[in-house]
Each structure stands twice: as structure tokens, then as C-alpha cells.
Amino acid sequence: MKRYFGRKLLVYILTFFIAVTIDWMIPRFMPGNPVDVLMARAGSFAGATELMHDYYTKVFGLDVPLWQQYINFWGALLHGDLGISVYVFPKPVAEVIMDAVPFDIFLLVPSILLSWFAGNWFGAFAARSKRLDNTILPLGYILTATPYMWLAMLLAWTLGIVFEVFPIAGGYSFSLTPTFSWVFISSLFKHWFLPFISLFLVGFGGWAIGMRNMIIYELEADYSHYLEALGAPRKLVRKYAFNNAVLPQLTGLALQLGVIVAGALVTEVVFSYPGIGYLILQAINTRDYFLLQGCFLFIILGVLLANFVIDIAYVLVDPRTRAGMQGESA
Amino acid sequence: MSLEVENLKVYYQTLRGDVKALDDVTFGLNSGEIMGLAGESGCGKTTLGHSLIRLNPPMKFIEGSVKLNHEELPIWDMEKMNDFRFMKISIIPQYAMNAMNPTRKIGDMVSDLLRSRGLDFSATLPELKRRLEMVKLPSNVLKMYPIELSGGMKQRMVMVISTLMNPSLLIADEITSALDVASQKAVAELLVEFRDQECCNSAIVITHDISILYQIADSIMIMYAGQLAEKASAEAIIHAPRHPYTKLLISSLPKVGIKHTEKRLPGIPGKPPLLLNPPTGCRFRERCPLAYGKCLEAPPFKEVEKGHFVACWKEFEQNA
């Protein structure tokens, strides 16, 4: 057990190191740089521009060779310093991200969990029942094949513009400042609904299809046939099939929860929803090395953490993993 | 008679038409009889075994009747058969290695199964433990997951589960195929012990391995292309077979003391017919060295001697 997790931990640390290195490289190899963006924003005097250019280059630590920048980056990171954002200069990156994260959690946790539960339940229910299979299944395929942004735009157009039921942009009404009041909370919910439902619907289709296929596979497994041959009622056979079919779905769920901090980029962009996804787009547009690095770092940590949790969860729910840990394969 | 099967026809439904895997099969099984069921691949022996307990699509019941202890088995009705399964008729499946739910402890699985049939697990537990002892499994296997057992242990565990309710009829489908020779013998002998201890009344043992049958079976039934060729006592089938197919089959078995580098095993030339559109008349006709005009008519499955049934015109002629 100890050895198993020791090994896993080593792999996670190695993955973290490589991923963070790539994370550092990506923005730096993009054309353009953050100082130019800032200068363009400031504009004006010829002499001053040069001075400010040098000044900012020094402030962001871009005046030293790349290898030195890389080492400085790790040094700062290990001290918990993610740098200063260019996009919302001079706010620290950590603060910018922390402002966005609640919106992601608020949007994605319910949409992922609810679509997972509803999808699995429906998929299991539809499997092997002719009428449902013929109606739910095509619907599921259509939903899951729908690109997020297309469904999002469709919803924004119908419910937002044609029927004017829901607002189509922002995390809350632009005329409000965040307070703990009924008006503000209802505004939050109104702005939350469209991105939520578009994510929910696409996710629902995918989970339902996956579960339906897994259930059929498990119902054809030998242990199901044996139970049937021993006259076990349909309920028991289905229960066993569901318990085994849900295992791969659990991995899928964990992976999705891991990228929560990544936000739902396209959906957030369509609805200008102020989560991490929206931040990433802004960071790219302003060549904000530090914000981009920070966002990706969050994603890396999220994915690794989710994987780790699922490793543990699997050990708890699937005895085959437990047996494997005692053997050489550990 | 413990089991009576009459004119049983079970076809496989395919897009190209019905595959006649069991065509007009009639036989009986005495109380306490272990009957071996042998024949080459695709002759319908597994179909016969399965149709007695779990006849599911693409298998389709066409006609016939099956009586177990003079009670009609509703084999065409998946739901109604549930009353008989496990209690009166049971199966040790070919896939015993994967027959148990991999994510449930064996004891819990048995308990789930018993409870779902309205039985009390704790009342059955002492008997279950006695049976485990009988097959030389420690009683802590009930606290294990199937993956923690070896292949042979799983096989024995499944044998215990299948026979827990002392069924009148046990179908053992290829139970020795996946085992090494030593385990094969042990499992085969267990089957006899089960019968002797009345864990099951009678049994049908489906196998390719006629030598195993010779050791444990009271009688052997040979199938060919979805029909019965011959049924007699194990002794008679091995030493005095009457159907030309049985004769060839037995002569194809290796014998002790003969070096097959010097003397090749004869085998049976040709291939069995496809059952999508089987030829009329005797289905063995085209491979049979004795075939003659009469064979264009299908031979009945007749008793030519007490307890010896055969489906061959030549035999009827000689006995007439």
C-alpha cells in the first residue's frame, strides 16, 4: 500500500515538473511580449517610451537570459509568487485568479455533477429497453455531438435575445456591485443559468450514451449470464451491471472535475462569464505571460489532484486494484 | 425418468435464416444418471444444454417439450423459468472463471443471490460451509473477491454455488476444458461425488473429452449436426459403438501404447454440414463410409437394444 502510493506520488511530482516547465515555455514562445502590449496601451512620448520599456522589462524580469528567467520562475513559484498580471496591471496574478475561481466552481461543479448523475441514471435506465433506446439514444448522440459554443449561442439567441428571459453576458448585472443582497444573488443566478444549461445538456448526452453502452457490455458479461442462469431477478443482475459499469464513468468524472479550474473556455467566452476560461483568452490577447502561467498552473494542479483522488477512490471501490497493489505490479 | 425431452427444436435466428442447431431431439435421463454429451464443435451440444435452462435470443424455441420429474419446463419463457432455475435445474457454465461478479465478495454475492430468491443466507451458511469443505476450499473464500482465487478454485466455487439448492438436474458445460489434467480429474470426480451425496440428482456433462466421460459418465450421448446419433451406456459407446459416426469418433481417440508417429490417427474425413440449410436425410450421409440409398431419408432415433439408441438405417437393417 505504502509502496503503491509512494510510486504514484513520484510519478505525480515528475508530471508536475514537466507540465510546469511546458507551462513556462508556451507563453514565452508566442510571438509578441507583454511589455509591448503595455507600451501600446500607454502610448505617448517618444523618449519616455524607451525609458518605460526598459523599466517594465526589468520589473517583469525579462532582461535576463531565458535560462535565468526559468530558474527565477521556479524560485518565485516555490515561494508562492505567481507574478504581476499585465492584463489587469498591477494586480498580482494569484488575486486575479482567485477572483475568477468562484465563478468556475459555481458554474462547473453543479453542471458536471448533475449531468453525471442524470446521464448515468438515464443511460442505465434506457439500456435494453427498446422504446427508450430508440428515443433517448439519438437525442443523446445529438446532444453530445453538439459543440459547446454552438449550443451556447443557440440558447443565448433564443432565450436571451428572442424571448429575453435571461441575460446573455457577464457573471452578474453590470449595474450592480457585489453585495450580499437578494438583488445581487438573483442577478448571479440569472446570469448563471444559460452557461449552466448549455454545459449540462452536452455533458448529459455524453454520460447517458457512455452509461448505456457500458451497461449493455456488462449485461453481456459472463457473471450476468450466470446470475440469469441461476434465476436471479432482473433487478439484481442490473444492480451488479450498474456497479461495474459506473467504474469507468467515475474516472471520466474525476478528469472533468480536475479541469474545473480551467473553466469552460468556449462557453465562458460566449457568455463573457468571468471564470478562468475567460481569463485565459484575455491573457493570450494581452500576451500576459504571468496570468497565463498562473491559469495553466491551476489546471495542472487540478488535474493531478483529481487523478490522485480517483486513484484512491478506485482502490476503495474496485477490489481488482487492491489485489494488484499487493503483487509485483505495484 | 428424471428428464424427458421430446421433439425439441431450437433454432438460432440470423439474418440469413434459421440455423437449425437442435433439430428434433428426443431423449430421457434416469434418476441419478450422469450422462455425457459429446460431439464435435457446432454439433449443438451446448445449445442443448443452454436451452434447458436459459433459452435467450438469438436462440429461438420452435417446438417440443421438456419434462423434469414429470413437470413441464416452460423453457420458452425466460421469466417463468426463473422458478425452476437454481432450485430444480442448474448449470455449471463453460465460463466458470468469469462467472462471479469481480467487484463483489463471493460470500456477499451468494447472499445477494439467495436473498433475491427469497431464501435465508444465514440458514444456508452451515450447508454452504460443509460443501466448501467437500470441494476442499477454505471457508474464508467467502470473504474474498473472485480475483483472489485460482482458476481451479473458481471452478470449484462455482460448482458449489450452482448445486447449493440440490437441483434435480445439473448441466455441466465443458467444466474440464480450461483445466490441467490433474485438476480435470479432480473436478470430474467431484461431479460424481456431488451426485453420490445427492447435491444433484442427475447431470448432463457436456464435453469434447470422451476419455473423461468414460471415467465418470453412466451413459454417453453423441450428437452430430444438431441431431442425436447415438445414446448408450458409457461402456457400450466406447467398446461397442453402433453408429458409424460414433465408431469413427472413438477410433480417432489416441490409445495408450500406440506410437502415433508410426500409425497416424485416422480422424474423420470431410466436414459437418452447415446447419443453415442442412441436407435432407441422414446428416452424416456425406461423410459416412456405409451410406446407401436409404440414407436419403432421415433415420429415426430408435432403441435397438435395451438402453441403446441409435439413428442409422444400416443398424436397423441388421437388427431387423
Question: Can you give a write-up of this model?
Answer:
The complex is a heterodimer of chains A (330) and B (320). With 330 residues, chain A is mainly α. Chain A has two domains: 129 residues, no CATH class; 173 residues, no CATH class. Helix content of chain A is 76%, strand content 0%. In chain A, helix 5 crosses helix 8. Chain A is globular, with a radius of gyration of 24 Å. Chain B folds into two domains: 181 residues, P-loop containing nucleotide triphosphate hydrolases (Rossmann fold); 68 residues, no CATH class. The mean pLDDT of chain B is 90. The chains are: A mainly alpha (330), B alpha/beta (320).
Quickly describe the structure.
The complex is a heterodimer of chains A (330) and B (320). With 330 residues, chain A is an all-alpha fold.
Give the tally of β-strands of chain B.
12
Number of strands of chain A: 0
- Following the backbone from N to C, one meets helices and strands of chain B in this order, namely EEEHEEEHHHEHEHEEHHEEH
Give the terminus-to-terminus CA distance of chain B: 27 Å
Given helix and strand content, the structural type of chain A is mainly alpha
Q: Whole-number average pLDDT of chain B? A: 90
Q: Please state roughly what percent of the residues of chain A sit in beta strands, choosing from under 5%, 5-15%, 15-25%, 25-35%, 35-45% or over 45%.
A: under 5%
What is the topology?
The complex is a heterodimer of chains A (330) and B (320).
Chain A: H1 2-28, H2 34-42, H3 46-59, H4 66-78, H5 93-126, H6 130-145, H7 148-162, H8 182-219, H9 222-229, H10 234-258, H11 265-270, H12 276-285, H13 289-317, H14 319-326
Chain B: E1 3-14, E2 17-29, E3 34-38, H1 45-53, E4 59-68, E5 71-72, E6 89-92, H2 106-116, H3 121-134, H4 151-162, E7 169-173, H5 181-196, E8 202-206, H6 210-216, E9 219-224, E10 227-233, H7 234-239, H8 244-251, E11 302-305, E12 308-310, H9 313-319
Parallel strand pairs in B: 3-8, 3-9, 6-7, 7-8
Antiparallel strand pairs in B: 1-2, 1-4, 4-5, 9-10, 10-12, 11-12
